[in-house]
Design a protein that fits this description.
The chain has 290 residues and is of the alpha/beta class. The protein folds into 2 domains: 72 residues, SRP54, nucleotide-binding domain (Four Helix Bundle (Hemerythrin (Met), subunit A)); 210 residues, Rossmann fold (3-Layer(aba) Sandwich). 50% of the residues lie in helices and 14% in strands. It has 11 helices and 8 strands. The protein has an 8-stranded mixed sheet, sandwiched between helices. A hairpin with a 7-residue loop joins β7 and β8. α4 packs antiparallel against α11, α5 runs parallel beside α6 and α9 runs parallel beside α10. The longest helix has 19 residues. It starts with a helix and ends with a helix. The model has no long low-confidence stretch (mean pLDDT 90).
């Protein structure tokens, strides 16, 4: 992934010299400029310096290897992260307006449908103008059913209807679009709480997954959004959109390091097929070389 972050890192590691204080200052600047964030950057550099000292090495070639191994471990994705794909699951997708939430839901539906899953979408974002129509259009493109009501309807009522359809059709995955009311955390929590109570009552045995959609180009704002959503509900993973070269790229490290939330999917373009599982090794190798 040739982006801003990888260009900075490749420039930094292109020679094999002693990793002195000036080198570590440049490394720190490169990471902060790439949206890794100050806290995560300092944590990573401290760990790298400690390991370099333990190994008794100080050439930039060695620092590159140590950094790469540290990031591999930090971002390592366990197959269990995707357990919900293999069983009957209810997937709630949350995110502020403008990050690509509804589009990501459509792409998820397309991804799962291509894998042979029976998918139903619930248009629970009855707040944003045009959200229902947008999801219905994505449903047509992905060839999946979309359960919806009128704009302004009670999202919990939409979810109730969707659950009845989900059970009647013996579908595999129900993906719920929700309103992006981050500016009012109390309302968000109340709305999600009401939806969860409906799910508990109607399909308690279903596996739960809650994904937050973040725009990778917004840097630390994305981290702040993830933190607020994590406080409001039980977030299980992240979908990062616009990871197609326009993003600086470091925000994925910050989300994992500071919040302990795994990036599970990334969006890399406009087409229905431009969403895939996040591959940590490919991501890290793209930044600092394999």
């Amino acid at each position: 992934m040739a982006n801003f972050f990888s260009r900075l890192m490749n420039n930094l590691f292109q020679s094999n010299e002693v990793a002195d204080d000036a080198f570590y200052e440049e490394l720190e600047d490169a990471m902060i400029m790439s949206d890794v964030g100050v806290n995560t950057t300092l944590k990573i550099i401290e760990a790298v310096q400690h390991e370099a000292e333990r190994q008794g090495v100080n050439l930039t070639r060695d620092i590159r290897r140590i950094l790469r191994d540290y990031l591999y471990e930090l971002m390592r994705a366990d197959e269990s992260y995707y357990a919900f794909e293999k069983q009957k699951s209810i997937i709630s997708v949350i995110g502020v307006n403008g990050v690509g939430k509804t589009t990501s839901i459509g792409k998820l539906a397309s991804l799962f449908h291509r894998a042979g899953k029976r998918v139903i979408l619930a248009a629970g974002d009855t707040f944003r103008s045009g959200a229902i129509e947008q999801l219905v259009e994505w449903g047509k493109r992905a060839n999946v059913d979309v359960i919806h009501q009128r704009e302004g309807a009670d999202p919990a009522a939409v979810v109730f209807d969707a659950l009845q359809s989900f059970k009647a059709k013996n579908a595999d995955l129900l993906i719920i679009d929700t309103a992006g009311r981050l500016h009012n955390k109390k309302n968000l929590m109340q709305e999600l709480g009401k939806i969860n109570r409906i799910i508990d009552r109607e399909f308690a045995e279903g596996y739960r997954e809650t994904l937050v959609v973040l725009d990778a180009t917004t840097g630390q704002n994305a981290l702040n959004q993830a933190e607020i959503f994590k406080e409001a509900c039980e977030v299980t993973g992240i979908i990062l959109t616009k990871m197609d070269g326009t993003a600086k790229g470091g925000i994925a490290l910050a989300i994992q390091a500071e919040l302990g939330l795994p990036v599970k999917y990334i969006g890399t373009g406009e087409k229905a097929s431009d969403l895939r599982r996040f591959d940590a090794k490919t991501y890290i190798d793209g930044i600092i070389g394999g």
